[in-house]
Amino acid sequence: MHCHIVPHVDDGADNMEEAIKMLKLEYAEGVRHIIATPHFRFNMFETPLEKVREQYEALRREALNIGEEGIDLYLGCEFHVNMNMAEMLRDKKVLTMAGSKYVLTEFSGPAPHSQIRERLYSLISRGYKPIIAHVERCAKLRSDINFVEEMVEMGARIQVNAESIMGKEGFGTKRFCNKLMKADLLHFVGTDSHGSSYRVPKMKDAYLYVAKKMGEEYAEQIFIDNPARMIKK
Length: 233
Ligand SMILES: [Fe+2]
Description:
By secondary structure, the protein is of the alpha/beta class.
């Protein structure tokens, strides 16, 4: 539910060949449904939606032919925060997750409390369900689990990267992920994969780790049931 697999639209997959390689890796990891989340960020990633949809559609057709079962590909967006998010979503300039009310919301690392609270509230108050993308990178949330809890109580959801759970971003990050799980403040795990060789799409190890640490039922909730809510029509 968080990956940059659509080719030619952001800093993710460079071309269709690379995107197909990523799909094959995902399939081997046991993944059968993917919500692709190209970046939208002013002055950095502003690929016209028409082009994003075109590239997505080409990849969606390829995904159906991966492995024996195929992969269902859906379209979402990693939406970097700005002042007009709700209006842009309403006007369909930026996409929610697979047409649902969920919005994968990205903050810059040093974003202050006031900005995090205000941006999330503006989405929630208009009926959207913001998911804080890789929360482990947000200093103000990472250093204060009570603030994470406050945002979840307000209606935000929390995502971490699979590699962070596995300790690839350092021990402190891994410990924070564990803390989130124990406090029942984690809702989604994504790969945030940008290619087949850097931050590769590995989900299986993270699933097995969470199942061992927190129980099979918990792992199923985070890796299967919660993301499935975004693609149920
Ligand atoms: Fe991302």
